Description:
The chain has 432 residues and is of the alpha+beta class. The chain has helices at residues 8-27, 40-46, 70-74, 113-116, 148-153, 295-300, 320-324, 416-425; strands spanning 36-37, 53-54, 60-62, 65-67, 80-83, 110-111, 123-127, 130-131, 168-172, 176-179, 211-212, 224-228, 237-241, 246-249, 255-256, 261-263, 267-270, 273-275, 278-280, 286-294, 308-312, 328-329, 341-344, 355-357, 363-365, 371-374, 386-388, 393-401, 409-413.
Amino acid sequence: LAIRNLTQTSKMRLLCMLILFVKEVVYSLDDNNGRLLRAQATASLAHDCQRGCKSTVVPICAEGITFQNECLAFCQGFEMYSKGKCNLIDGLRDNNKQPKFLESAGRDVFVGTPELKRFEGFIYTGVVSLDHSLPMMLQMSLPNNASDDSILHNVDHEKESEERDLRAIRVTSTGALYVSPGNIGTNDTILRLAGDNGHRKEKVIGHDTREIITDTATMPFKAIGEIDYSRFSEGGCTGSIIGASSVLTAGHCVYNQKDQRWQSPYSFSPGRYRSNDQTIEPFGVWLVDYTTTYLKYTQTGDVEYDLAIMTMKSNANGKVGDYMGQFWIGVSQCAFPGDSGISGYPGDKSDGTLWKSQPCDRWYHDCRSKSVFHQCDTYGGFSGAPIYTKTNVVIGVHTHAYGPQIKWNGGVAFDNVHVNSLKSWMSDSSTS
């Protein structure tokens, strides 16, 4: 009777107080696994999923995924979560390895169904800031007594758990961050090659055998291009076309694991060359729509997962792979083909010039790892360059070098795990 006599405004106030009270009670429930339970009925009163979710940054963890706020989790079907970011690194909390979400200052920006449902198989988690500076060229740090043999034989060859963490993480050119909910491994081996993930800087080994490519209108060179990081800068990494809209590169070309920030590739120019002191894009420029890499790489820096796909927007010529042609991708063999080569855009040569390193002095690949060691001459800017056979099949990606005392450079060798992951990140792959 007392409630019936209240004014409409008083009733609304009472309802809001009741919602807040129930919310706090629900938050106090614990399922003994460190997770707080969230009631769907309570959440449905607090969030209007049809209208969308605000960009407020109050991180929560739901099923191993860190969301910018609880509305984003609830509106995508997650009803159990805990406050704060997830504990993802070997079961320990490491918030420095988690997304740094970006809040829209002073504005109510709503994220609706189109953003939440943009990518099938991916969960929208929030918005992150992007770094448009050039990627850092890194070199593996080594102990003073390191030698060529110690590099080749210091790889941890323990078989990885069948339950690897093969989840992908994707960021758009506007900073929208998505994660695939895939399987999560607990005993996965992290590859640490003779030291930590320090600076990498690709190098020339002995006499420089690189050869400049003057005709970029034929395969494989027209399917290789330079990656730019803004409209006003040139180069930084190399990429290769492996699908109608898909360009393969290194993971550290899209994510700086050391500084925990997203690099933001701006465009891709296939077949770029230099003439009369001018950089020429004979086939045009394609802008980046979004990039995808392994979530594991962003969290651990594991060099065996240093891979990424850039998905390109179409331009006046259509899709980049349809217009330019594309490589196949395939699984590398135990005995790495001796006639394999690497082509890219090195930073120690004139801007916009494509160079080939082939044949290379030596290759070393152990089937028990995803790493390949090579004595091809490279330099900063070659990161992400394809390692390909004479039949134009990409079987790996060049990613790093070692200290000056070591006569090896290195990259990622493709196995079935990598090939299947790359295929799942794009809808237009070519596989051999």
